Amino acid sequence: MKNQKGFTLIELVIVLILLGILAAVAVPKFMNLQEEAKKSGVKGAVASVRSAINIYYANANLKGKTTVFPPSETVLKNILNGPIPDNAAVINPGADKKAIDVTTTATPPAVTAADSTTATKPAWRYNSNTGQFWSNWGGGFKANTY
Fold this sequence. Notes:
About 40% of the residues lie in helices and about 10% in strands. The chain is mainly α. It has one domain. The protein has a three-stranded mixed beta sheet with strand order 1-2-3.
């Protein structure tokens, strides 16, 4: 029995402490990556819809139409060739992540973290007069700053 080899209890405790320290450092960084992924998702969705609106605008101008921006949610969905993208900033699971509020309000509304708990608030807002399209949810970050 004198030739048995293995780790002592102290060595195992030291390894567990080191793993705990590494985990404590890595978890906050991972949480920050999730937030950045949400921001990027919203930015990508906004960019794709804005691009479709710009193409519609250019075609309407070339054809001499008086309505140069998509006038409704239905037309907006048609030019996207599919559904409106999900808004990753929507935290509330009961909310519709594709809902659009078509408005003529010129400026985006103020977004707060409290908006994340409102299930009836539409995920997106679209101004049919100016062609502006923006996120209508805070989700813990300022989704309207881009």
